[in-house]
TrEMBL record:
InterPro entries: FAD/NAD-bd_sf, FAD/NAD-binding_dom, NDH-2, NDH2-like_C. It catalyses: a quinone + NADH + H(+) = a quinol + NAD(+); a ubiquinone + NADH + H(+) = a ubiquinol + NAD(+). This is NADH:ubiquinone reductase (non-electrogenic). It comes from Salix suchowensis. It is an enzyme of class 1 (oxidoreductase). Residues 386-419 form the External alternative NADH-ubiquinone oxidoreductase-like C-terminal domain. It is found in: Mitochondrion inner membrane; Peroxisome. Its EC number is 1.6.5.9. Belongs to the NADH dehydrogenase family.
Length: 473
């Protein structure tokens, strides 16, 4: 799509325009530079002889396609491309002046003061995503790990590793060992069910073989207020329940009332101790989205019309999990899925290209431009699959979302190795004797050639010093 490959030349750039059609070209919210001193702290409004500017807030599934020239190997050439990336928080919008107020991210560093600046836009795309829903339950944000960002996955991995090692400390009580090795997942939707199954499978195939001392203690509990996968076909729900139980997941129906540092409390008074708590109960609007004085759709998301416009704010569009159709449109609430957000992004790119070509790219213009067909999400025919076929199709769908063919190849090889050798890339642990029995975790022969000496020793079951454990990540 030409739009994604061609972003605007900023007003301070002298580079040759990238599009053959000079009438309209977009930009993304981008890297702020102070190379040239200016009295305007940010990007000034575009002039009549300059290309119109589109500012995109957010870099998730809805916003990321707009920044595709900045991904991977193209990143070092962002100035040459005339595209920039701002690492900043949006603190406010002035839709009358067509201005975005921003503040740089300092990550809590006391030595760096946040720098505030403004970005003027001709068109604004809000793609800020959503946040995990806690339903106001006390202690969730402090003690649970969500399933939203990459750093959440890293924290789950770190916490699981830590608990596995702590559980082997001499003199630890049976009760404390059981708590440390109890993995609790709250939320029986698709994400919670999939994660519970993967985690339990990892425990059965890898952890219990590598850490012999945990096999009678470590387990996974999935807590859901209603039935798991409530939006799915009844036969698939029964199949998922059977498979989860078979893989060792303990299913509990209940509602969490309170979360404390080492236990959570259900509304019926049941106390559930945990060592790892993962929260997967859906998403909702962020505080910033709630603060915007726009009409809201059901659920508190930014209200949009059929063309993804915010009716009360000219030249403002909203896509992804932060947006939803207004009730007046008669359209149903769209699911908060990556596929939906990405399709909205592509649709809006085509729409803005059309608006620009028809002369409506400037701010406060384009009202008379014919927009064409509204956004429509094509629904797939109902097809219920389970077992290996569904696993293979789902994994294949994941591969299509990987950015480059090289990365797709690496991911596919990793999955094939995992499937063949019953190993996972999430946790690679080498263990020598010291627990009274030899490790039974064997390596795939094809990997031995590239293995370290300690890995070869471990795979062969050779003896080590008494009580010595070597962990490698």
């Amino acid at each position: 799509m030409s739009f994604f490959r061609n972003l605007i030349q900023l007003s301070t750039s002298k580079s040759k325009p990238l599009l053959q059609n000079p009438n309209f070209l977009f930009t993304s919210l981008s890297h702020f530079t102070t190379d040239t001193p200016t009295s305007y702290a940010g990007l000034e409004p575009t002039k009549r002889d300059e290309k119109p500017r589109v500012v995109v807030l957010g870099s998730g599934w809805a916003g990321c396609p707009w920044l595709s020239p900045l991904v991977g190997s193209n990143l070092p050439y962002r100035k040459h491309l005339g595209s920039y990336f701002f690492l900043a928080n949006c603190t406010g919008l002035d839709t009358e002046k067509h201005t975005v107020h921003c503040e740089t991210v300092t990550d809590g560093l006391d030595t760096v003061d946040p720098w505030r600046f403004k970005i003027s836009y001709d068109k604004l795309v809000i793609a800020l995503g959503a946040e995990a829903t806690t339903f106001g339950i006390r202690g969730v944000k402090e003690h649970a790990i969500f399933l939203r960002e990459v750093h959440h996955a890293q924290e789950i991995r770190r916490k699981l590793l830590l608990n596995l090692m702590l559980s082997d400390v001499p003199g630890l009580s049976e009760e404390e060992k059981s708590r440390l090795l109890h993995c609790v997942v709250v939320g029986g939707g698709p994400t919670g069910v999939e994660f519970s199954g993967e985690l339990s499978d990892f425990i059965l195939k890898d952890v219990r073989q590598t850490y012999a001392h945990v096999k009678d203690y470590i387990h996974v509990t999935l807590i859901e207020a209603n039935e798991i996968l409530s939006s799915f076909d009844d036969s698939l729900r029964r199949y998922a329940t059977k498979q989860l139980t078979k893989s060792g997941v303990h299913l509990v129906r209940g509602i969490v009332k309170d979360v404390k540092p080492q236990k959570l409390i259900l509304t019926d008074g049941t106390e559930v101790p945990y060592g790892l708590l993962v929260w997967s109960t859906g998403v909702g609007p962020s505080p910033f989205v709630k603060s915007l004085e726009f009409p809201k759709s059901p659920g508190g998301r930014i209200g949009i019309d059929e063309w993804l416009r915010v009716p009360s704010a000219p030249d403002v569009f909203a896509i992804g999990d932060c947006s939803g159709f207004l009730e007046s449109t008669g359209k149903p609430v769209l699911p908060a899925l990556a596929q939906v957000a990405e399709r909205q992004g592509k649709y809006l790119a085509n729409l803005l290209n059309k608006i620009g070509k028809d002369g409506g790219g400037r701010s406060n213009s384009g009202k008379e431009v014919e927009l064409g067909g509204p956004f429509a999400l094509q629904e797939a025919k109902g097809l219920a699959l389970k077992g290996f076929a569904s696993w293979f199709i789902w994994r294949s769908a994941y591969l299509t979302r990987v950015i480059s063919w090289r990365n797709r190849f690496y991911v596919a090889i990793n999955w094939a190795t995992t499937f063949a050798c019953h190993q996972t890339a999430a946790l690679q642990v080498q263990e020598k004797h010291g627990h009274g029995q030899a490790s039974q975790h064997k390596m795939c022969p094809d990997l031995i050639e590239h293995a370290s000496e300690s890995e070869k020793c471990h795979a062969a079951g050779c003896d080590g010093d008494a009580g010595e454990i070597k962990h490698g990540v």
